[in-house]
């Protein structure tokens, strides 16, 4: 199983916003939902739009390309159930935010 890796610090991402960062070579969209952090793959499964640049409303991010909506907590697509996006495990240690890719 992979290790947790520090990717950001608490305070880097304001509540209600997201940010694109990398876990190794993998682009990840990290979101702050009312103080809880959630991470999904940055590439929209529709046509690779940058989900980290989407607008966040509650736990729902809207893809900036074609406005498909994804729940950042579950990875489910609310627009088309045929799509879902990979999630990453998030851990906060002190002021550090760490991510880990779940075991397959
Ligand atoms: S690329 Fe995200 S909705 Fe089309």
From TrEMBL:
PROSITE patterns: RIESKE. Signal peptide: none annotated. Keywords: 2Fe-2S, Aromatic hydrocarbons catabolism, Electron transport, Iron, Iron-sulfur, Metal-binding, Transport. Residues 5-99 form the Rieske domain. It holds the Pfam family Rieske. The keyword Chaperone does not apply. Belongs to the bacterial ring-hydroxylating dioxygenase ferredoxin component family. This is Rieske 2Fe-2S domain-containing protein. It comes from Pseudomonas aestuarii.
